[in-house]
């Protein structure tokens, strides 16, 4: 059964209380735009099309995580339709005082597990000017990929909390590497200096500019990709990758099955890491950075190799990494603790309280027992 919430997309902002009420069919792009126009934000992901529903329930990670935390950390209440009695349903209001366990679970426990969220209430954060950087290296510099990743991982997770930074490399066949990010405030010279160890490698094209947060978000939000197939996987890197692990990443990118295969990393630490792992269902807070990789394909004959590459990459990284992000689900993961760590047991308790008959279930949903 598909429950389509896309027409429930109203957004109401109360600036005096610094609270936004958002129906869950709104897209992430609509929420960021509505808030950004009036100088506010919730930390979220970086693309327009994902729904705020799934993004928030699973966490919502992006370049404001180090300065503000996650989308789910700003969820202070929600309306949810939950199962009730034989084939019945009930609409409940959830907040810190009512159904607090369910609020805890909806802060990162993943969509589709407990009921249908129809409306979210977010604490919103004032934000004005930010400084962005955009650095790209062409194929002549692909030889530096290991050094770039190594310097990026030692620099950005411990940098000033106002910096949120990404690093991504395409396969050797494609040859491009990029790092970009957002620094809160107008500090172009300070940002350039902070990034110097990275920008000094090879000959990147670099732009550093100051603009409103909304313009910065729109600048980085990519237009939707043309239709294609894809397989993603993700991990959290808790201790900096040692040279052998970086060599593994290098080797997978050098031998990727399709040119579009890539890795994407997001610096962690700062505000997201200061919240205890058991305070919300979102577990992976103490990592240094997040990494995902994917191998898109359009031709059916490429499917086997593309999927095998993603799965073998995951296996090869296992000695060096932990966990996975529930919003980038990977069906090769068999143990739900990979997503939820020690929070799985409490998520199951909440499941037993609100959906004991397991009405809401799918391949990797939280089972009551
Ligand atoms: C192009 C792209 C870029 C992305 N970038 C980021 C990023 O920067 N940061 C990040 O954190 N994530 C990112 N993601 C991952 C994104 O968080 C997930 O894909 C998320 O699941 C999207 O939510 P959705 O509602 O659009 O998806 P859906 O597939 O509709 O939903 C995902 C899950 O949530 C459930 N769900 C959805 N809405 C509700 C609701 N109202 N009530 C109950 N359950 C619900 C669904 O049943 C399903 O189980 C990206 C995804 C894409 C496609």
TrEMBL record:
Against Gene3D superfamilies, the record matches this protein to: 3.30.465.10, 3.40.462.20
Domain of life (superkingdom): Bacteria
Q: Does the keyword Glycosyltransferase apply?
A: no
Q: Which Pfam families match?
A: BBE, FAD_binding_4
| Cofactor(s) recorded in Swiss-Prot or TrEMBL | FAD
List the PROSITE patterns hit by this protein, alphabetically: FAD_PCMH (PS51387)
Entries under InterPro entries matching the protein: BBE, FAD-bd_PCMH, FAD-bd_PCMH-like_sf, FAD-bd_PCMH_sub2, FAD-linked_Oxidoreductase, Oxid_FAD_bind_N
Q: Which residues form the FAD-binding PCMH-type domain?
A: 1-127
Q: Which residues cross the membrane?
A: none
Instruction: List the keywords (alphabetical).
Output: FAD, Flavoprotein, Oxidoreductase
What PANTHER family is this protein classified in? BINDING OXIDOREDUCTASE, PUTATIVE (AFU_ORTHOLOGUE AFUA_1G17690)-RELATED (PTHR42973), FAD-BINDING PCMH-TYPE DOMAIN-CONTAINING PROTEIN (PTHR42973:SF39)
Please state which protein family the record places this protein in: Belongs to the oxygen-dependent FAD-linked oxidoreductase family.
Protein's recorded name: FAD-linked oxidoreductase YvdP
